[in-house]
Amino acid sequence: MQPVSRPTTWHPEPVDVALTTVDDAVRVLAGNRIAALTGAGISTDSGIPDYRGPGSPPRNPMTYQQFIGDEDFRRHYWARNHVGWRHMHRTEPNAGHHALADLEERGLLSGTITQNVDLLHQEAGSRNVIDLHGRYDRVICLSCSLVVPRAALAERLDALNPGFAESVGAVGDIEIAPDADAVISATAHFRPAACDSCGGVLKPEIVYFGENVPRDRVDAAYSMVDDADALLVAGSSLTVMSGLRFVKRAARDGKPVVIVNRGATRGDVYAMVKVDDGTSTVLPELAKRLPAPAATPR
């Protein structure tokens, strides 16, 4: 099992990468079967803020240990999530998501590993997606492992807390964090719901900071990288090992790594190409310019 806890010693420092343009990225990726790794930066243009991008405010997301160990933390989380998840449900994929779906449709992209929980890749039409950190639309019981739709839980939370969501203001007026967490403070009176089946603690089916990514999910992601000829990283600072390990795997095996991200990333030292720009700009350009794969001779 691989920990997802955030490192506290890494600080962004520029790393000189010789190749830095979209032209470079096209040359390196052309003719290769590509796997993609995406982070919060690909969804910022859909209205979901990231954690570490330039201009992002400091954020201290709840850890797994806090969630399971403190009832007050759980109440606080569920109150914020009860408001925030509605915003996630209303977001739409942007040009970057659609570009990756197009690359997959044309046979250039074998699949996408995403650190996001927003399901925007699937909404854009991507079929082969590994939701590394889970997905916001499902909830799991920590005692009996029952999984229920988040929408069904919302109905129960509305019944337990009539008028709560409306009392904190309109969704458009509330700051939303990348994990469907709304930034609100008055949560002491909120009543969370227990598992309908066993009365156990419910948790979003999302990998929290400090929690382990399920082994089968990690193995599937490694297999996707191993089966590809190149790795395209889009919108991730690669601060946590959860994503960086796949970059290191590709580099270890001599596969070109192309990173598209605003600002420095922890993986720049492994990159053959680093394009310091937004994914909504660069990915559609790559999709437009990368040639179709050569036909397999019969």
Automatic annotation (TrEMBL):
Zn(2+) binds at C141, C144, C195, C198. Its cofactor is Zn(2+). Binds 1 zinc ion per subunit. Residues 12-293 form the Deacetylase sirtuin-type domain. InterPro entries: DHS-like_NAD/FAD-binding_dom, NAD-dep_sirtuin_deacylases, Sirtuin, Sirtuin_cat_small_dom_sf, Sirtuin_class_II, Ssirtuin_cat_dom. It is found in: Cytoplasm. Coiled coil: none annotated. NAD(+) binds at residues 39-59, 115-118, 235-237, 261-263, 279. The keyword Zinc applies. SUPFAM superfamilies: DHS-like NAD/FAD-binding domain. Pfam families: SIR2. The active site is at H133 (proton acceptor). Keywords: Cytoplasm, Metal-binding, NAD, Transferase, Zinc. Belongs to the sirtuin family. Class II subfamily. NAD-dependent protein deacetylase which modulates the activities of several enzymes which are inactive in their acetylated form. This is NAD-dependent protein deacetylase. The lineage of its organism: Bacteria, Bacillati, Actinomycetota, Actinomycetes, Micrococcales.
